[in-house]
Give the backbone structure.
Amino acid sequence: MSGHSKWSTIKHKKAVTDARRGKLFTKLSKEIIVAAKQGGGDPDMNFRLRMAIQIAKDNNMPADNIDRAVKKGAGGAGDGDIMAEITYEGYGPGGVGIMLETLTDNKNRTVSDIRSTLSKAGGNMASSGSVAWQFEQKGVIVVDVSDSEPDDLAMIAIDAGADDFETYDDTLHIYSEPTNLEGIRTTLTDNAAAVSSTELSMIPNNTVMLDSKKAVQTLRLLETLEDLDDVQKVYSNADFPEDALQNFKGD
């Protein structure tokens, strides 16, 4: 799991420009719209919508934006009518597996963008199922522990139903079954934990440690893939040496 915690921590700590934040808000809005379209606009009755709203709040998305997206999806018209949810799989430098969750209104454009991005980085598309079997869906909660004791919070999370945890760079990553995610978050916030993100994620069963050169190439590839308009989430089974992470931070 360490590759996941390193990548997600570095990704969130890199400087976020207004342009990139705007792109993130667009992606979060798309997820809220589709969630509300499929399961209705009441978060109490729609787990996916509840999670989408929580993720949006974690990323400081304005409440007005969230409300507009919910109403747009629940209203039965607009983007939710034409968006297709498709998961693509591929390989990156060093043969690491990559999964991409997309929301798209143009499959041909999405495939072309992903294939081109992978190819430029020395990777390639993979057939359906060839990468996915290496991953398992988990709930992931990230807690800022720079001013607190991570082991104490980890034990609180375990008692609340968490399966595992790890720390990286002043953050505590807590893993659970999806059904336990909300209860664990509530318990942590009740204990004054500084929860920075909560999400459902695809976690690799095993990771591949890359050498420094391929690690930097892979980190840049993952970032480029996440920046594609149709890509919602990117997962990989890569793990990265510390020197590569430091180089990536400085980019």
